[in-house]
Amino acid sequence: MNKDELKGKAENLKGRLKEALGSLTGDKRKQAEGSVDRMRGAAREKLGEGEEKVEEMGESVSEAARDASSEREEDDDE
């Protein structure tokens, strides 16, 4: 889990709390702010997940390139 995922989760939680507080007090503005915070947090969390997947894919590609290079070097030595 990276920093964007963590910050997204925190913002999502903050939004849920604001929504609940707004609902309890009848404050429609606070509810709306909470909803926006929650959506922003969810988006940031997804961004973090995507970044992590891209990083993992990059590592896999690098590993495959190293393996292919090693195989070529072995074939050249024969």
What does this 3D model show about the protein?
This protein has 78 residues and is mainly alpha-helical. The chain has one domain. It contains 2 helices and no strands. 12% of the residues are buried. The model has no long low-confidence stretch (mean pLDDT 91).
List descriptors.
0% strand; 78 residues; 94% helix; mainly alpha; 2 helices; rod-shaped
Quote the beta fraction.
under 5%
Rg for CA atoms: 22 Å
Mean pLDDT: 91
Low-confidence stretches: none
Q: Estimate the global geometry from the Cα principal axes.
A: rod-shaped
In total, the number of strands is: 0
Task: Supply the number of helical segments.
Answer: 2
Instruction: Report the sheet with the most strands, covering strand number, pairing sense and barrel closure.
Output: none
Order of helices and strands: HH
For the record, the count of structural domains works out to: 1
Secondary-structure-based class equals mainly alpha
Q: Which bin fits the share of residues in helices? A: over 70%
Distance between the termini: 44 Å
Task: Provide the fold topology.
Layout: H1 3-25, H2 28-77
Give a quick summary of the entry:
This protein is mainly alpha-helical and 78 residues long.
